[in-house]
Amino acid sequence: MEKTLTRWRGKVALVTGASSGIGRAIAVDLGRLGLKVAITGRHRPTLAVVSAEIRRAGGEALILTGDQAVLDTNRRFFRRVRARWGGVDVLVNSSGVRGGTSVLTASLAELQGGFNLNVLAATVCMREAVADLRGRPAGVIINLCSMTGHRLLPGTPGPYAATKHALRIMTDGLRAELATEKLPIKVALLSPGLVDTPWHSRPGGVLAQKGAYPYEPLQPADIVAAVRYILAAPPRVQIGDIQLRSTGQPF
Ligand SMILES: NC(=O)c1ccc[n+]([C@@H]2O[C@H](COP(=O)([O-])OP(=O)(O)OC[C@H]3O[C@@H](n4cnc5c(N)ncnc54)[C@H](OP(=O)(O)O)[C@@H]3O)[C@@H](O)[C@H]2O)c1
Question: 102: CA distance to ligand 1 center in Å?
Answer without folding.
Answer: 19
